[in-house]
Each structure stands twice: as C-alpha cells, then as structure tokens.
Amino acid sequence: MAAVQTLTLVVPPTPASYAAPAAASSSRLAPPHPSGHRALLPVGPAYANHLRLALHHAHSFSSLDKHLEKERERLAALHSADNAAEDDLGVGSEEEPEELLHRDPKEWKSQDHYAVLGLSHLRYLATPAQIKIANRKKVLKHHPDKKAAGGAAKEEINSRFLTGVNLNTNDDAFFKCIAKAHEVLTNPERRRQFDSVDPVFLEMEEDIPTAAEIKSKRLDFFTALAPAFALYARFSKTQPVPALGTSDSTKAEVEGFYDFWYNFDSWRSFEWLDKEVNEGSDSRDDKRYTEKKNKTERARRKKEDIARVRGLVDLALSLDPRIKRIKQEEKDAREAKRRAGAPGAPAKKTKAQEEEEKKAAEAAAAAAEEAEKAARAEAKKQKAAAATAAKKARRQQREAEEAAGAA
C-alpha cells in the first residue's frame, strides 16, 4: 500500500498594491434589461417559417403546410440516392403472415429465419449484404419504439371512444425473432446448420418422386429427377456439381455424372436438431448423457441422408434411358466390327486355325529345345575328349622324361 505524504505549502502574502474588485468575477448574473425582459433574436427554424408564412403564403397555414410537405419530399428524394444500391437488391420487403408475426421468440429453433427477414425467395442463396439490408429494413419496420409511437398516436385519436384503455402494448416479440434470425444467418457455422434442416428443403425432399410414381404417371426422366439432384447439389463439398444432363449426353458425361454422385461428399450436418440440456440442471451426468444421445442421433441422421442420396442415384441409374442407348450402341459397334472388320486388316482366323498355329508353335519350341540339348551334350563330349587327350599327352611326356633320366 502506498504511503501518504504530507506536503507543507506556504501561501505568499497579498501585495500592498492589490485592490479588491467592485463585483465578484464569478458572478453569473447579468444586469437587468431596461424594459424588464430579455430581447429575442430573429433566428432559428421557427423564425424562418414565420417569414415564409408572412412573405410567401400571406399568413395561410394550409399553404405553408403544403410547401413544407413538398420540401420534405424533395429532401427525401435527394437522400434516397444514398440508399439506392441497397433498395436495388430487392430484399426485406416481403409481407409477414399473421402466424409469423405472433410467433413465440422462445421457440426460435423452429422458426423460418429466412421468412422472418423477408428472404424466402433467396434462402441459402442470400448473400451477407442482402441479409444485412433485409435485417435493417425489418428492424426499422418492427422496432418497439416505432410501435410505441404508433400506439400512442392511436390512443390520442381514439381517446374519446376508449377512455382509459392503453393502446400502446409495446409488444416486441417479433422484433426478438428478427434479432435471432439475424444472429443465426450472419454466423457461417450456425447458418450452415440451419440450411441443413431448412424446413422448405425438407418439404421439397419429401416431394421427390419414387420409381413407381415415375412409371405409373409416365413422368419424363429428366424433368422428374433433375430438380432432385439440384436440390442435393448445395451440400456438395466439391463445386461445381455435374448436372443430370439431357438425352443426348455422351458416354463420358453420363459415366462422369454417376461416378461423381456415387462418391458424393456432403457437408450436411444435423447439429441444429440437437436436444438441449434440461433447463436448470447443473448435473454433469445429464450433460454427458444428452451429448451422447445427440451424437448418436446425428450419426443416425447422417447415415440416413447418405442412404437417401445413394437411393436416388440407384433410382436414376435403373431408369436412365441413356444407359440402354449406350449399351445398344456398343453392341452394334461390336457386331459391325465382327462382320466387316476394320478396313485393310487381315481376315479373322478361325478357332481351328488358331489351334493348329498354337500346336505348330509348341512343336517348333520343343524341336528347338531338343536341338539345344543335343548341342550342349556334344559340346560336353568334345570337352571331355580334349581333357582326356591332354591328360594322355602329359603322361607320355612324363614317361619320356623319366626314361631319358634313367639312361
């Protein structure tokens, strides 16, 4: 702790030439006006309106009000140019249905965040700039302060009919829904979780036709299934995603399409559907149990999603008219080649000719092997004879040398 130091200050005495002022310098009172009141200066917007009323509108308040209204419209038009770029995006202007306006903000997990911000026509395609502008428009429209002002005005107008009734309820439930929708859609991770279980996507997913429906209703293969593949394409980690194509697609395009979808890598997750821990519970066991159950449910839903996409690809492969066309084209090509063969190529040999050639080749190989064996045996024999002759010559020479030595 810091120590307290005491300083001794000595104030010098007042000089002899000092004279006290007639009035205190700190006085804030001005001398009274001779007429008994202060003068008003001709300045400010009120005085400007007074001059307009007297000089340009002959003291006609209705004429002045019309002039001021036109002036406000002119200034609004000038300032609207600053927000023209935002207005051109065309977002945030959707009217909210009554059931949406009366939603409970506590049930924010089940609300359609895109519908709350007026982005139903864009949904997952909405850009961050569009989300920002849509949120701004909705906030300006549904801010509690604006509702409070509107309620006060209604209460003043109808006071003679509803005396004592407070029309200003200041209900900010939908404003809380707007805040939560903005919070979710501006967070990339949470937005991705919501897009994975988008209620509109789930409804469209249920409308994908089955094989029986396509056959019974005689639906066009490409018209029925192309939107289904486009629906799941948003979840692909690899972009762009090959489309289903047309009836004239080449073999390479068809094979590339099915190869991609049979190896489809999806980022879709299901954390949004996790159950929360019981409110007010501080038990670690409850939290661990809930997390374990959520993890199991996520894995189950992910497995079902993969199986659903694989089933769609199997369905397309079984009904694709291009597969039958490609197989027929390959069969026709093989038949044509078998009948006519390639131009300038030798005639195709029969099976008997191929067998004879095979046997002749085997016989020639056996004869060559026998000849090689005989050559090796002859060489070995000659080598042994040469060694015997050399040995005999050395023995004779040694005998001759011994006989010479004895003589």
From TrEMBL:
<feature type="compositionally biased region" description="Basic and acidic residues">
    <location>
        <begin position="326"/>
        <end position="335"/>
    </location>
</feature>
<feature type="compositionally biased region" description="Acidic residues">
    <location>
        <begin position="84"/>
        <end position="98"/>
    </location>
</feature>
<dbReference type="GO" id="GO:0005829">
    <property type="term" value="C:cytosol"/>
</dbReference>
<dbReference type="GO" id="GO:0006450">
    <property type="term" value="P:regulation of translational fidelity"/>
</dbReference>
<feature type="region of interest" description="Disordered">
    <location>
        <begin position="279"/>
        <end position="303"/>
    </location>
</feature>
<feature type="domain" description="J">
    <location>
        <begin position="112"/>
        <end position="198"/>
    </location>
</feature>
<dbReference type="InterPro" id="IPR044634">
    <property type="entry name" value="Zuotin/DnaJC2"/>
</dbReference>
<dbReference type="InterPro" id="IPR036869">
    <property type="entry name" value="J_dom_sf"/>
</dbReference>
<dbReference type="GO" id="GO:0043022">
    <property type="term" value="F:ribosome binding"/>
</dbReference>
<feature type="region of interest" description="Disordered">
    <location>
        <begin position="326"/>
        <end position="407"/>
    </location>
</feature>
<protein>
    <recommendedName>
        <fullName>J domain-containing protein</fullName>
    </recommendedName>
</protein>
<dbReference type="GO" id="GO:0051083">
    <property type="term" value="P:'de novo' cotranslational protein folding"/>
</dbReference>
<dbReference type="InterPro" id="IPR054076">
    <property type="entry name" value="ZUO1-like_ZHD"/>
</dbReference>
<dbReference type="Pfam" id="PF21884">
    <property type="entry name" value="ZUO1-like_ZHD"/>
</dbReference>
<dbReference type="GO" id="GO:0030544">
    <property type="term" value="F:Hsp70 protein binding"/>
</dbReference>
<dbReference type="InterPro" id="IPR018253">
    <property type="entry name" value="DnaJ_domain_CS"/>
</dbReference>
<feature type="region of interest" description="Disordered">
    <location>
        <begin position="80"/>
        <end position="104"/>
    </location>
</feature>
<dbReference type="InterPro" id="IPR001623">
    <property type="entry name" value="DnaJ_domain"/>
</dbReference>
<feature type="compositionally biased region" description="Basic and acidic residues">
    <location>
        <begin position="370"/>
        <end position="381"/>
    </location>
</feature>
<feature type="compositionally biased region" description="Basic and acidic residues">
    <location>
        <begin position="351"/>
        <end position="361"/>
    </location>
</feature>
